[in-house]
Amino acid sequence: MKDVVLEEILIEAIAENLDGLRHVAVGASSPIPGAAALLARSRSKGKMRVSILGSEDNNFFSDGGKEIFDVAGQGRMDAFFLSGAQIDGKANVNLVSVGDYEQPKARFPGSFGSGYLYFVVPRVILFRLEHTPRTLVEKVDFISAPGFSDDNVYRPGGPHKLITDRCLFAVDKERKCFRLESVHPGHTVDEIHEQTGFKFDLPEGTVPETRIPNSETLHVIRGEVASEISEIYPAFAARVFGIGNES
């Protein structure tokens, strides 16, 4: 069996946080979260529903992307994924601009309803493949979606985990901060401190290494999941799993 790659480690780590859910929705440009949701559905023996925006085979919405907001508001979406140009130590997400808002260094497409979904989806998993002080900052330049709210604000949704290409953070909702949960193979706690722009808590004792998928899980990821995700992300499936084509 070929060596395990980072994408497979991330797929397994995310899928572990989706076990037992009824409905997981995945937005655009999210091949790894999409594959993780499909892995979790496979483990559920069909009990979980997965909706991947843009997919023909795994998209149950009949009214386009805006139906995501209706489903979420009705409490029929258990998990969703958010990313951003910046994420800070209070789980705030920036999808708008970097630098001064009037004269930004860079401007991005926009928030796309992230603030709303962050408030109503119970389990939002933050996902960022570039783990550097440039992306994981002390304080975002613009808040597209706030990580936490005051205690008197009704908010059934919010952050659950933050996963990057280096590690996995848990969310401490009482302290309103991140706690390092595990470090991916080949990385260290010192490196995480160096490459993270915000402060975070550490668990008691030794920080564990993120679990590598076992042979049974890899068989599902490289077979069933790879085939399904290739329908919407053929280039990703070709690069990571060597199937499909890149056209």
Structure write-up:
With about 250 residues, the chain is of the alpha/beta class. It folds into two domains: about 1-80 and about 215-245, no CATH class; about 85-210, Glutaconate Coenzyme A-transferase (3-Layer(aba) Sandwich), CATH 3.40.1080.10. The protein has helices at about 5-15, 30-45, 65-75, 115-120, 190-195, 215-230, 235-240, and strands spanning about 25, 50, 80, 85-90, 95, 95-100, 105, 125-130, 135, 160-165, 165-170, 175-185. Strand 4 (about 85-90) and strand 5 (about 95) form a beta hairpin.
TL;DR of this structure?
This protein is 27% helix and 19% strand.
CATH class of the largest domain: Alpha Beta
Assembly state of the chains shown: single chain
N to C succession of SSEs: HEHEHEEEEEHEEEEEHHH
Distance between the termini: 27 Å
Structural descriptors:
about 250 residues, alpha/beta, Glutaconate Coenzyme A-transferase, 2 domains, five-stranded mixed sheet, 7 helices
